[in-house]
Design brief:
Elements: H1 3-24, E1 29-36, E2 44-51, E3 54-59, H2 61-64, E4 73-84, E5 86-91, H3 93-99, E6 103-104, H4 111-123, E7 131-136, H5 148-154, E8 160-164, E9 169-172, H6 174-180, E10 192-196, E11 203-209, H7 213-216, H8 224-240, E12 243-248, H9 254-265, E13 272-278, H10 284-294, E14 296-297, E15 301-309, H11 338-350, E16 354-359, H12 362-379, E17 387-390, H13 401-404, E18 408-411, H14 420-425, H15 427-430, H16 432-435, H17 441-446, E19 451-453, H18 464-473, H19 493-499, H20 502-507, E20 525-528, E21 545-550, E22 553-557
Parallel strand pairs: 1-4, 5-12, 6-7, 7-8, 12-13, 13-15, 15-16, 16-17, 17-18, 18-19
Antiparallel strand pairs: 1-2, 2-3, 4-20, 8-9, 9-11, 10-11, 14-15, 20-21, 21-22
Length: 558
């Protein structure tokens, strides 16, 4: 080889190395502020450098500025804090988006308010075949049982179905009952209850659990446009609250699953998504085979999670209890026979699915833990990261089992304060001994179990800061003093921030990608307008997310 050729090769290599190093040392984005990384080895930092959505550097400001070029965008957050994006491990985002276009009864505190909203909704939609809506609060009505006659006065001619805020009851009018063929002779379906007039035994207008299906099966399907529009709007709302990752706890419709996949691919939904499909006791084997064909893992969206309902809810007397509700012989509804749940969870576990179970009563929780233990014994240990959500009433004997069985506890901690659901619908039917077992977040944390946070939106607020505050104070958001629900079960702010970031990421198999601010991870980060560690605990809910970045791209700015 000639000297000239050698010289050209060396020069080319130098140019390549220079350009490569220049690219490596330049950043698209630099963030400077009070950075809480959720990385145990480097808990705080002054600055972050980001390129192509990847975190290049985490550390001091001076070094970060070496990554600055003319095109670098610099954000300074001097008074607030910087965190990884929040991850909600139990949310109904798809359905929440669709519900927003229906009769919205959320946050209404009196029957008259509810009637007014229903009247106005019906008046403005004279051509709709059905009147459908969501969000009425069970404690508003006597014994949580609104009557059909009250809806008949407002709308006698069209069928009406209005789901409760917790999603476990439906309020219907006489037209709906007639359409479904429900009368005084109709037996309660398996895992459901038709509330009845105590004098006549006629259906009163409230349907619990699977009894809702008797009317719901007649509802027209949502259109593709309704599903996609609802999901896009809901995803924007999630970004507004700093949420960059979710587990949608039950899609139901295949069209919804495809909407998640397609809209995440087209970047119209800026979230890391784990979607789940339902398994029912009657046909779970068929569902397992179907889910195998639906399973996929994309860049930002995956479907490898199955959702079970172990029981119902305490306020509807459908949560499964080890001992009866006070003053009755009723122990609630256990949706799965224990042997059937054992077999089903073992089968889904063997097939490689993550299993996510709704369980609220102490019997529902114990039966689910037994099934997880059965699957582990049959199939052997595996890294499926099974989860249980809500877990309202955990018997003390079962609290250590979350850690022993490696089951993630997804708490909806916003419910852990003495609101009307607790004081009017829960404490009176449990008695003092069981009342001491409500939402034992602190006790479960002490066992070493993985704890994550979920909203269950639209059942309750989508804002993670609301739930974080209640977990820390056990009081209603904003309350400095006053009654708290089992304050000994409160946990620290750091615990809840981990629950909504790195521990949430772990539960969704994303801990190598997001959940903490570390070199090599994707830049899902948020800015808050105040430092949560520098304000009173009862003001946490007042903090606002000012910026949300997903993959290094700004997707929300206040």
């Amino acid at each position: 080889m000639s000297n000239l050729s050698t010289k050209i090769i060396i020069q080319s290599l130098l140019i390549f190395l220079f350009i490569g190093c220049g690219q490596k040392q330049s950043a698209d984005l630099i963030v400077i502020g009070n950075i809480f990384t959720m990385d145990a080895d480097q808990p705080t930092a002054e600055a972050i450098a980001i390129k192509n959505g990847e975190i290049l550097f985490v550390g001091n400001r001076k070094t970060a500025e070496n990554y600055k070029r003319f095109s670098t965008k610099v954000y300074e957050v001097p008074n607030g804090m910087v965190l990884p994006g929040f991850i909600d491990t139990h949310v109904h985002l798809l359905w929440g988006g669709i519900e927003a276009i229906e009769c919205d009864l959320h946050d209404l505190r009196s029957a008259e308010e509810i009637y007014t909203v229903i009247r106005n909704y019906i008046k403005n939609r004279p051509d709709e075949e059905w009147v459908r809506g969501n969000g009425w609060e069970i404690p508003v009505f006597p014994e949580g049982n609104p009557r059909k006659e009250w809806l008949d006065i407002i709308e006698p001619d069209r069928p009406v179905i209005l789901y409760s805020a917790d999603g476990h009851s439906a309020w219907v009018n006489s037209k709906s009952l007639k359409l479904a063929g429900i009368d005084r002779h109709t037996p309660d379906p398996l895992n459901g209850r038709i509330e009845r007039d105590p004098d006549t035994a006629e259906p009163s207008g409230t349907l619990r659990e699977d009894a809702m299906i008797l009317v719901g099966k007649f509802l027209p399907a949502y259109s593709k446009k309704q599903i996609e529009t609802g999901l896009i709007n809901a995803a924007h709302k999630a970004n507004h609250f700093g949420i960059t990752g979710i587990l949608d706890a039950g899609i139901g419709e295949i069209d919804g699953l495809y909407a998640y996949r397609n809209l995440s691919r087209s970047k119209k939904v800026n979230l890391r998504i784990s979607a789940s499909q339902y398994a029912e006791p009657a046909d779970w084997r068929k569902s397992l085979e179907k889910m195998k064909t639906l399973r996929f893992i994309d860049k930002n969206c995956r479907m490898n999670t199955v959702k079970f309902f172990a029981d119902g809810v305490i306020e509807g007397r459908t949560a499964a209890l080890l001992e009866p509700y006070i003053g009755t012989e009723d122990r609630g509804i256990l949706n799965w026979h224990p042997d059937s749940m054992n077999s089903a969870i073992a089968a889904f576990d063997k097939a490689g699915f993550q299993v996510h179970v709704h369980a609220i009563g102490d019997r529902g929780i114990r039966t689910t833990l037994d099934a997880y233990e059965y699957a582990k014994n049959i199939n052997g240990p595996s890294d499926k990261r099974h989860m249980m959500s809500h877990i309202q009433l955990i018997h003390p004997d079962d609290q250590p089992r979350f850690n022993e069985l490696d089951i993630t506890a997804s708490f909806q901690s916003l419910w852990a304060y003495p609101d009307d659901y607790i004081t009017q619908m829960t404490l009176p039917v449990l008695g003092p001994q069981r009342a001491a077992w409500l939402y034992p977040i602190g006790s479960v944390e002490k066992t070493g179990a993985h704890i994550t946070g979920g909203s269950d939106w639209t059942v309750s607020s989508l804002n993670p800061l609301d739930a974080i505050e209640v977990a820390v104070t056990r009081r209603e958001p904003g309350e400095l003093k006053g009654e708290a629900l089992l304050p000994s079960e409160a946990v620290g702010l750091s615990t809840m921030l981990k629950a909504y970031t790195i521990d949430g990421a772990y539960s969704l198999f994303l801990e190598d990608k997001v959940g903490s601010i570390q070199v090599g991870k994707r830049a899902d980060i948020i800015f808050l307008d105040r430092n949560l560690f520098s304000i009173p605990s009862h003001e946490i809910h007042l903090a606002k997310v000012t910026h949300t970045f997903f993959d290094g791209n700004l997707v929300y700015e206040k």
